[in-house]
Amino acid sequence: MTESIEIATQNRMAPVEDLGWPRIALVTPVFNSAKYIEATIRSVLMQEYPNLDYFIVDGGSTDGTVEIIRKYASQISGWLSEPDNGMYDAVNKGFARTNGEIMGWISATDVLRDGGLAIVGSVFRDLPEVEWITGRPTVMSEQGMTVEIHELQRWSRYRYLAGMEKFIQQESTFWRRSLWERAGGYVDASRRYMSDFELWARFFRHARLYSVDGLIGAYRWHDDALGRQEHELCARICEEIVAAELNRPPRYRSLLALRRLKRVVGRIPKVRGAWNRFIAPMIRTALRRMPGPDLPPVIRYHLWYEPRKWFLRPR
Question: What is the Rg, in whole angstroms, of the alpha carbon atoms belonging to the chain?
């Protein structure tokens, strides 16, 4: 068995409360990712965020990952290397060893965009009513080139459970620890895939998700990504999570009826093709145009006006 190693750097990243920057707890789960982990760590440290609580959890790598982490040990809050039960187990271990009031995780293949943590910290500082945010989804190539910056999506519990958009970009998403605790204080480590999807479903029970018009994190598109290897399994897990969530109040009868209709249509091949080609896109368009009572405004920055800070802007 791999020996458990845990190193904490005392006082290296002590809180800097007088500067007004909230303390951010950031975790990186990693296992045998020597190819990418250094770029991830550097993307975090180059932020130069003044109040960062950064912890790395390694699952007992044997490919040189641990040696790379050691290079940066003096610049982070701490790190741990021991066998675990997968990425989500590692995330839970990391958060248990942090105390930042703002939380998020960045996987070992992904990166933070320049100034990403400054966006996160200043949004939560300027807007105390906001508990949960996500930025513009950004995708980079395997070589690290930014290749896609998507349109800014708006989110609500209804839209999420309707399946209008399934994937809230995890590396661009941060939240207050108080929300984390109200939602149970854990990521479900019983499954290998899509537990971030399940966490968001629990968050939606307690808070609205605000979209920030800014670049926070970037997802690396590469062949080893778990979601790409098991696309059908991930989709099935999402459907199971949604089905369970729809049985919780408030129940959306229209969504339950839509799901029943979709199941019936799915049994008829010719009708299923027409549904996927014509009806489903019409439904998604209608949902995008539906304001909804729980659809929050977009968060944008006052670039040309004083005071220069983040503000809520209906869209």
Answer: 20
